[in-house]
């Protein structure tokens, strides 16, 4: 029997002691548990292990069915993967792109065992600016379009390699936004300054392989802006817009453009986008990994996404513990 390790960064202790841990832990656990649950549903075809930490135990229904693989207190995610990856045939990682972490996870695990996007796709998608420029070259509308700069009422400053809404702030005028971006650059941070595209916040969930993309689900993003302009993420409602919706076909076209613009996308991929009243779908960023929208999607679609994702990867010899 082949073995697979699921390692989600937050529930594996990646943010222990960090101020954001409490807020992000429920999201991390939900993604990990959804992935493990889908794998366990494959009728015993795989021996499933999951990285855990104190406060992020396996879901009750998974105890005794999946192997608990606790991360030693204080051990970095990369060190944990370096130890555990050789003991498994496959490794399925969810980690932020920030600081190149997801890319480094890929390097540590190795392409032969890695479930998900290839190294080049991870490199491109880890930079919001670089990935959006690649999309523009394929004719996609993005937040970098000069048309949005000319009519912008608000501006957003965020990490160029960030994940989610972390350190994302909206400003009512350009000088304030530019000053904030400059301060971040002086602190050594990676920064992108973009017009805030007005419209409905959405996300698209894709199944990608060999330069193609299937639009699995078109979702509504719950985005909130505080009185200080700080942006928060309040969850995602999957499947809010079906194939019969007028927005489905244009987003499917955007999905195809993403798949060709970023070579090596494979498996579950997300696009954060805004539906603009005249421009249609406007790409904000590409997430080259499992995201919150994965949770419950296999059940909603009545498909085994885990099985389909595993099928996209060539077989390797069993390594074993």
UniProtKB/TrEMBL annotation:
Keywords noted in UniProt: ATP-binding, Ligase, Nucleotide-binding
Record-annotated ATP-grasp domain positions: 119-314
SUPFAM superfamilies: Glutathione synthetase ATP-binding domain-like
Keyword Ligase (UniProt): yes
Keyword flag ATP-binding: yes
GO function term, MF aspect, one: ATP binding
Protein's recorded name: Putative ATP-grasp superfamily ATP-dependent carboligase
Protein species of origin: Sphaerotilus hippei
Taxonomic lineage from the root: Bacteria, Pseudomonadati, Pseudomonadota, Betaproteobacteria, Burkholderiales
